[in-house]
């Protein structure tokens, strides 16, 4: 079966260990108000005008975002950078959107990559069925899991879905002893409340296996142009980007609780 992707980022250094190629799969069942990739949410390709200037003239064309690719076509693309992956201890990261929304295609790609000697990582909200997660876990070397908000009502308000299955899936994955990191978006006044930080720490401490790291991802207002281009509502459009230092206090709280913490990406 083919998949729909909307981007391939080569030489990525924030999506897992080493130098990686990150594949962005289209479609996401969430609708986070701070999403950096709003063009990823619709499962099918979308179109948006793109203006180019050439020799003093302005041309506007309708650009397609998202295209169909077969597993073997995508594998061939990924193999172009395999030498850099191998020399740097890197690999391939599947991101999105929510890659689990295209579970069968994702599973096929993870298996193909592993069987060709590539380290595999999956950047996911874990908003999916446990059955699908179990399937892909067999061919996933590292999970990069979003932990957005602990309070279910606030999670529904800001992402559009309940966090119940997400939290259960994280618990079950930790019990499988799979390697995983937790990524927490630092959204001022939303994820940064003392209640949310304390509840996140308590939840992570309760897991059968701790995350390899807790990665704090400060809010960046870099998607403003995308929201305008795709004519989508941008609830955080006026929120300024955060400096790394703004997450220092939260970093200390997680470190005090015994976690290895990074601020980045
Ligand atoms: S889960 Fe990720 S891709 Fe999906 S809406 Fe939220 S931030 Fe965007």
Topology overview:
Elements (H helix, E strand, L loop, with lengths): L2 E10 L7 E6 L20 E9 L2 E9 L1 E3 L1 H9 L2 H7 L2 E5 L7 H13 L3 E6 L5 H8 L4 E5 L5 H8 L4 H12 L4 E7 L7 H12 L8 E5 L5 H6 L18 H9 L4 E3 L2
Parallel strand pairs: 2-6, 6-7, 7-8, 8-9, 9-10, 10-11
Antiparallel strand pairs: 1-2, 1-5, 3-4
The structure holds iron/sulfur cluster (SF4).
Iron/sulfur cluster binds next to loops.
Describe this protein's structure:
There is one protein chain. This protein is α/β, with parallel strands linked by helices and 265 residues long. It has a single domain (3-263), classed as TIM Barrel. It is built from nine helices and eleven strands. It has helices at residues 71-79, 82-88, 103-115, 130-137, 152-159, 164-175, 194-205, 224-229, 248-256; strands at 3-12, 20-25, 46-54, 57-65, 67-69, 91-95, 119-124, 142-146, 180-186, 214-218, 261-263. Strands 5-1-2-6-7-8-9-10-11 form a nine-stranded mixed β-sheet. Helix 4 links the parallel strand 7 (119-124) and strand 8 (142-146). The chain is globular. The two termini are 32 Å apart. It binds iron/sulfur cluster (SF4). Iron/sulfur cluster binds at residues 28, 30-32, 35, 37, 40-41, 96-98, 125.
Biggest beta sheet summary: 9 strands, mixed
Average pLDDT, rounded to a whole number, is: 95
Helix content: 25-40%
Order of strands in the sheet with most strands: 5-1-2-6-7-8-9-10-11
N-to-C span: 32 Å
Task: Output the keywords.
alpha/beta; 265 residues; nine-stranded mixed β-sheet; single chain; two-stranded antiparallel sheet; 9 helices; TIM Barrel; binds iron/sulfur cluster
């Amino acid at each position: 079966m083919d998949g729909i992707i909307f981007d391939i980022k080569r030489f990525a250094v924030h999506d897992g260990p080493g130098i990686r190629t990150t594949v962005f799969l289209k479609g996401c069942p969430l609708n986070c108000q701070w999403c950096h990739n709003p063009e990823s949410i619709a499962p099918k390709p979308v179109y948006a005008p793109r203006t180019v200037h050439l020799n003093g003239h302005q041309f506007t064309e309708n650009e397609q975002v998202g295209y169909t690719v077969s597993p073997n076509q995508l594998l061939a693309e990924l193999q172009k950078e395999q030498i850099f992956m191998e020399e740097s201890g890197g690999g391939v990261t599947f991101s999105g959107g929510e890659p689990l929304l295209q579970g069968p295609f994702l599973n096929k790609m993870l298996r193909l990559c592993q069987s060709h000697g590539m380290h595999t990582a999956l950047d996911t909200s874990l908003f999916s069925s446990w059955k699908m997660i179990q399937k892909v876990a067999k061919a996933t070397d590292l999970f990069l899991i979003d932990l957005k908000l602990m309070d279910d009502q606030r999670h529904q308000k800001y992402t559009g879905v309940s966090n119940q299955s997400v939290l259960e899936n994280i618990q079950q994955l930790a019990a499988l002893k799979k390697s995983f990191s937790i990524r927490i978006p630092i959204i001022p006044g939303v994820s940064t409340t003392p209640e949310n930080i304390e509840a996140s720490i308590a939840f992570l401490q309760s897991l059968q296996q701790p995350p390899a790291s807790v990665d704090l991802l400060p809010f960046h207002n870099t998607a403003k142009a995308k929201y305008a281009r795709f004519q989508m509502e941008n609830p955080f459009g006026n929120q300024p980007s955060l400096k790394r230092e703004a997450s220092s206090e939260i970093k200390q709280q997680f470190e005090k609780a015994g976690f290895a913490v990074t601020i980045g990406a």
